[in-house]
Amino acid sequence: MGSKLGSALGIVLLASCTMAFGPVSHRPPAERCVAPLPRRAAVVERVRFGSVRGRALQLDLVRPSTPGPHPTVLLVHGGAWRRGHRQHMTSTMHAFAAQGYAAASVDYRLADGLRSVFPGPVSDLRCAVRTLRERAPELGLDARRFAAVGFSAGGHLASMLATASDVDDLDDGTCPVDRGSVALQAAVSFYGPYDLRAPLRVGPGADGAIRNLLGVSRTRDPARATLASPIAHVDRDDPPMLLVHGLRDRIVEVDQTRRMRRALEQAGVRVRTLELPHHSHGFGVFPRRPTDDGAIACSTLSFLSDTLR
Questions:
Q1: pLDDT of residue 4
Q2: Cα-flanking dihedrals φ and ψ of residue 225, to 5°?
Q3: Considering 144, 180, 202, 210, which has the largest number of Cβ atoms within 10 A of its Cβ?
Q4: Helix (H, G, I), strand (E, B) or coil at 50
């Protein structure tokens, strides 16, 4: 596509995974690619970046103890767009800080089923990016190196940040910072839905969740469903993306990732996929024990290193 609607590899490939391309090698334990949490505590700060209907929107920011400016990873929690909290990403934030990244876990508006919430969640994340960029010098961030990492519904929102940075209709006027770029330099999406348009299947129970997000059935308002679909905004200017999906996922179908990969490839965007035969839905980036399989962490960190450093 030449325009957008209305307008983080030397990647590690593992025997337990199917990648879009590249050779297959051994499975490294996490200790080979994941730095341990430092003894010296990272710098933690809470940043207010807006408010909606009297509710403050906040993010938690964790920075490495080493001097900046640091590349920044925006973490977007999942929860079918209707539940979840930024504090669910606390351990992941600290793990990213141990790898040398500033990490921010962000609030965004949740659907309550009574009114349309879209594009509210996307607008909130765009506002968080603008706020962090504006305050980058004081917060020790590198405004030129921003990535988003999202999970499930958060993967959808991170992908909207990546592919629709120039779609002004996604700003709803609630952000105090109304200028500045929302463009990312990289994005990682874990088992996210990318095409909300009917009659395409997303996964069991998806129609209800999408209706809560859009405030209307996707069959009744196809234009709104298209506006909310990252795949509909793909063009050659999008940042590199890593798409991660478990082949046992029964919530979001793996075809969503495969179709998104093809769309990005056809647009000339750098994209990598990591398909995990033994994973379902809801896994994270970092292993819980040093001896655990480091496939996901190694691939994610290698991708971010290539794209942000």
A1: 41
A2: -65, -35
A3: 210
A4: strand
Residue recorded with tokens 């750098």 = 270
Cα torsion 252, 258, 263, 269: sign = positive
Which residues are 216's β-sheet partners? none
**Taking the complete model, does pTM exceed 0.85, yes or no?**
yes
Alpha helices, H only, the chain:
90-98, 120-134, 136-139, 153-163, 206-214, 222-227, 255-267, 295-308
Could you give the CA distance from residue 83 to residue 152 in angstroms, rounded to a whole number?
A: 12
> How many Å apart are CA 281 and CA 284, to the nearest integer?
9
pLDDT tens digits along 189-212: 999 999 999 999 999 889 999 999
The pLDDT value recorded for residue 30 is 62
Q: How far is CA 157 from CA 19, 48, 95, 188, 293, in A?
A: 23, 20, 22, 11, 28
The 8-class DSSP code of residue 83 comes to: S
Count of Cβ atoms closer than 10 Å to residue 189 Cβ: 29
